[in-house]
Q: What sequence folds into this?
């Protein structure tokens, strides 16, 4: 399924309003592997931006669609990225009909708005997995804030990940879903971020995943059995 | 191909330089499948060198002797050769002839995962696709290279990815030999590794749980 089939009507010119853009949950998560713009032939205009989730390719037909999706990636100054912050970001960007564009992303599973500890969060972690991007630098041989690990490129820039974030970044690709991460985290000592059971770890895993995505060192894909 | 001419491929995801909890010393961490290995800086340097160097892509063969030659200054050649052998034994380095039978064995044992996002194409050159870390490191990839890179990680093994790519081409009327695609991919693999577009990991198996 592609988004282009859903965007036949021209967007109305009015900017989104705070009441029109509510998506339901507290935390914002973009899903998909960003493959960038596609130009069909020399000199021709942009055809679409492509995002893949599992084996499915989605085409975002306009720069505005892509901006609404990428706006869900950027980590805010004050984590986590919540829907009000995301909404304000879209309003400030002045993207025409951003609410409708965001809704289409939600309908296609490219954007999720969920509560950190609700049933929708459990469903989300069972149906998505985290894949790391960039590389690790680590905690030695360069100056890093205490208790953090540098992720990024060998010559920078770096993101200084917390221990839980680094743990999720390093192991994420070996797990079929974020739920496996919750199970593994539950097995860790409390001083290492562990919880009493997987359910109690869902919020921690989600916040770590969001921080990694927001700093361009990971993306979310469909869980292995849903790809 | 002579054994000394086989290309060397690093296996695993680099976890950075970390402080060992037990000794307080610095080690290089590498996750491969469901295991993390932490090794000395000298041994880790050999593994890192197996990715290739961006400034030498296309003109250096990443063979055992090339990598051992790039050991740290404080390591002897004899030590480096022992460490290299240990990395092979641990499954953290693989030596392959892209044209030989071990290419298939490699492809069935490992998979390729992305480490960078796609940057699409441009109206000036729509037949080449960019991938990498803008604005720092990008590379242009051909159609099959980019398709394998962006889709291959959805398959359990690199060989499955080559077969899936060939099947996708056949659905739109093109013939693509998966063996040829594998050979070409292996020959150009160090572009993806050196530029941190991809990394190689163990194949994903349904019986995972214990280390593969």
A:
């Amino acid at each position: 399924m592609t988004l282009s089939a859903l965007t036949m009507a021209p967007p109305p010119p009015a900017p989104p309003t705070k009441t029109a853009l509510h998506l339901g949950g507290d935390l914002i998560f973009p899903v998909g592997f960003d493959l960038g713009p596609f130009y069909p032939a020399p000199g021709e205009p942009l055809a679409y931006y492509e995002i893949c989730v599992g084996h499915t390719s989605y085409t975002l037909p306009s720069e505005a669609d892509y901006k609404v999706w990428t706006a869900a990636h950027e980590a805010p100054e004050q984590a986590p990225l919540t829907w009000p912050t995301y909404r304000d970001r879209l309003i400030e960007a002045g993207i025409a009909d951003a609410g409708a564009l965001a809704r289409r992303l939600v309908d296609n599973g490219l954007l999720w708005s969920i509560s950190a500890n609700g049933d929708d969060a459990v469903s989300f972690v069972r149906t998505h997995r985290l894949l790391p991007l960039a590389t690790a630098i680590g905690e030695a041989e360069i100056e890093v804030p205490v208790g953090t690990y540098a992720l990024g490129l060998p010559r920078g820039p770096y993101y200084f990940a917390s221990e839980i974030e680094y743990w999720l970044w390093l192991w994420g690709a070996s797990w079929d879903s974020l739920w496996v991460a919750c199970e593994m985290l539950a097995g860790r000592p409390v001083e290492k971020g562990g919880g009493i059971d997987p359910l109690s770890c869902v919020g921690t895993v989600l916040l770590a995943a969001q921080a990694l995505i927001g700093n361009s060192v990971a993306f979310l894909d469909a869980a292995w059995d849903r790809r | 191909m002579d054994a000394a001419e086989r290309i060397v491929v690093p296996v695993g995801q680099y976890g950075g330089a970390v402080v060992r909890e037990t000794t307080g010393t610095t080690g290089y961490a590498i996750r491969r499948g469901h295991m993390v290995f932490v090794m000395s800086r000298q041994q880790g340097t050999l593994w890192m060198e197996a990715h290739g160097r961006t400034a030498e892509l296309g003109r250096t063969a990443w063979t055992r002797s090339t990598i051992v030659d790039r050991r740290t200054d404080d390591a002897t050649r004899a030590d480096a050769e022992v460490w290299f052998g240990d990395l092979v034994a641990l499954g953290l380095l693989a030596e392959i002839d892209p044209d030989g039978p071990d290419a298939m064995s490699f492809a069935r044992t490992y998979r390729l995962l992305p480490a960078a996002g796609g940057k699409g194409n441009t109206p000036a050159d729509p037949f080449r696709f960019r991938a990498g870390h803008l604005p720092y490191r990008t590379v242009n990839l051909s159609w099959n290279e980019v398709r394998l890179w962006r889709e291959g990680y959805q398959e359990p093994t690199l060989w499955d990815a080559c077969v899936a790519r060939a099947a996708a081409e056949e659905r739109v009327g093109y013939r693509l030999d998966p063996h040829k695609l594998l050979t070409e991919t292996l020959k150009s693999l160090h572009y993806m590794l050196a530029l941190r577009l991809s990394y190689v990991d163990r194949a994903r198996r349904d019986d995972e749980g214990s280390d593969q």
Observations:
- Chain B touches chain A through 41 residues (CB under 8 Å).
- The helical segments of chain B are 41-49, 64-69, 77-89, 102-109, 143-151, 158-171, 178-187, 189-194.
